[in-house]
Design goal:
Helices cover 27% and strands 27% of the residues. It is α/β, with parallel strands linked by helices.
Length: 541
């Protein structure tokens, strides 16, 4: 059945807008007819998130789609390495199956770093042969972010085999290189890397752009770089893409890539330069089967009344309306939970840190940043055991292997400001062991054991009180809607804030403290990790 949609057509390829009518048949735009009598609304190409981990939304792909389409998202380029670290290929298949039940276009990559490093234990491993098998599949579009940049630079055989597998199959390779500069950056890019979403400054971006990288401007829940990097939208429109990377459910409920477009417009950027990054560049770079409002394209577009507000009135995918206003026009499919949790129970005695020196290394957190600093704490003279001290914001941090019985890794952190209780989660990037931050060992043990016994989730414990959000899908995702998961997650965040934590995203900030590929000081289940030396390090100076 032929359909006609009229409005002000915003053409991102021709970089013009005009009154016209789309003629749609069999899911494609068969013609675009000028129509001077049309006064509105605006018809824009559908928006694309060029780099995201769906798991961070706590939603299955199907549930994610039901909210994302209402914000004008028609496609996402997704790296499923979170669930792959827990369940391996079975987890990737779960994501693809869930995404296939809804109209949003999911383009999944083969995770390149499972685990992210050799300095941690995960629930699964993907060797070079496993990655090659994934890249042979038509439902795997690219090699996902190569976080092991030291391995690329030093040409580790296993790492290079993964890069070669992607190159031999003509599939793009995503990067991850925070702060990498100079000859090492040149070696990294020369190995076939094509994108980066971790740049921290304009100077770093300019160096990466000169080497041919696409810069993915990230505005996520934990890391938000658009305010610093937005000049690239105008200076290098052909090499920018927009992405969220990680988005908690309450933030997804408010908006998605449409909010980045709105912010960029408010900063004075040209609409067509913005759409180049929000639509055109992802399609061309990854060769996505997504329409750009051209004759013959899939009919993927959005309807907007007011460009300055970027509120989406309707979203169309493959010639069918999939949302109107804030309501999706489809239902999500069913997901059968898979999980992996065999952590050993902990006693308070297991969490003691014995004094072995005069200076303690401390992870120092900055709100809104994934990078951390290396701090010091002078151990009080005569101490035999070092305890958390909320009065000086010295809290204990633990990573506990949830895949097999093992002793916990113990360290200390500043920046959480928590005065009472313990927060814990089975979301700990990227191996997703149990991570916890606490003011005392009693609450700490209870919080960790609550997750061990329950198969994962997110929890806060204070004395006899406890609050928990269940995440039965790999300990990463729930089975509720975006609104339901946002309510549960926000309630836990609010409980932590009531106990003194000032961080904007306390649980997400905690989750990234286990990610050793981002400097400077992190912690894995094997111990404290120096991200600059890329090696495990002692707790004491």
């Amino acid at each position: 059945m032929t359909k006609k949609i009229s409005g002000i057509v915003v053409d991102p390829v021709g970089r013009c807008q005009f009154p016209g009518t789309l003629i749609i048949d069999q899911g494609r735009i068969v013609d675009i007819l000028p129509d001077p009598g049309v006064t509105g609304p605006f018809i824009l190409p559908g928006l694309i998130d060029s780099h995201i981990h769906i798991e961070s939304s706590l939603l299955t792909p199907a549930a994610f789609a039901m909210k994302a389409v209402c914000h004008g998202t028609v496609a996402v380029v997704a790296d499923p390495h979170e669930i792959a670290n827990v369940l391996g290929v079975a987890g990737i298949d779960l994501m693809i199956k869930s995404g296939g039940q809804v109209p949003l276009k999911f383009f999944f990559g083969a995770p390149s770093c499972v685990p992210a490093t050799a300095f941690e234990n995960s629930g699964a491993r993907l060797a070079a042969a496993d990655v090659a098998d994934l890249l042979d599949r038509p439902d795997i579009l690219f090699l996902a972010e190569m976080m092991n940049f030291p391995g690329v630079i030093s040409q580790e055989p296993e790492v290079m085999a993964k890069l070669a597998a992607a190159a031999q199959r003509g599939k793009k390779i995503d990067g991850h290189a925070p702060g990498l500069r100079g000859p090492e950056l040149a070696a990294y890019v020369g190995a076939g890397i094509s994108t980066d979403h971790e740049a921290l400054s304009l100077a770093e971006c300019y160096e990466k752009l000169a080497l041919g990288l696409y810069i993915q401007l990230r505005q996520g829940s934990s890391a938000a770089n658009l305010a610093d990097l937005h000049p690239l939208i105008t200076s290098h429109p052909g090499q920018c893409m927009l992405c969220s990377d990680d988005l908690k459910p309450a933030d997804l409920a408010r908006g998605h890539i449409n909010l980045l477009v709105k912010k960029a417009l408010g900063l004075g950027h040209n609409l067509f330069d913005i759409l180049q990054g929000a639509c055109v560049n992802p399609v061309r770079h990854y060769n996505l089967d997504v329409g750009l409002l051209q004759k013959g394209d899939p009919a993927d577009f959005i309807i907007i009344d007011d460009l300055s507000e970027m509120r989406v009135g309707a979203t169309w995918i493959n010639g069918e309306a999939v949302s109107r206003g804030s309501r999706p026009l489809f239902t999500g499919g069913q997901t059968v939970p898979l999980n992996h949790c065999q952590a050993a129970p902990l006693q308070v005695e297991d969490l003691q840190v014995k004094a072995r020196g005069a200076q303690l290394k401390v992870i120092e957190v900055t709100d809104g940043q994934l990078v951390t600093a290396k701090g010091r704490f002078a151990v009080p003279a005569g101490s035999t055991v070092i305890k958390a001290d909320p009065r000086v914001d010295l809290l204990k941090i633990v990573v506990h292997n949830r895949y097999q019985p093992a002793p916990p890794a113990l360290a200390f952190v500043r920046g959480f400001g928590l005065k009472q209780g313990a927060m814990a989660s089975s979301i700990a990037h990227d191996s997703h062991n149990i991570i916890a931050v606490a003011c005392n060992d009693t609450d700490l043990a209870r919080a960790i054991n609550l997750l061990s016994d329950g198969g994962g989730g997110i929890t806060f414990v204070h004395g006899e009180e406890q609050w928990r959000l269940a995440l039965p899908v790999a300990g990463l995702m729930g089975l509720g809607s975006c609104e339901e998961m946002a309510a549960g997650y926000s309630a836990l965040e609010e409980k932590v804030r009531e106990k003194g934590c000032p961080l904007r995203t306390p649980f997400m900030t905690m989750a990234f403290l286990a990610l050793p590929v981002i400097p400077a000081l992190k912690i894995t289940d094997l111990g404290l990790f120096d991200g600059e030396r890329f090696a495990l390090t002692d707790l004491f100076y």
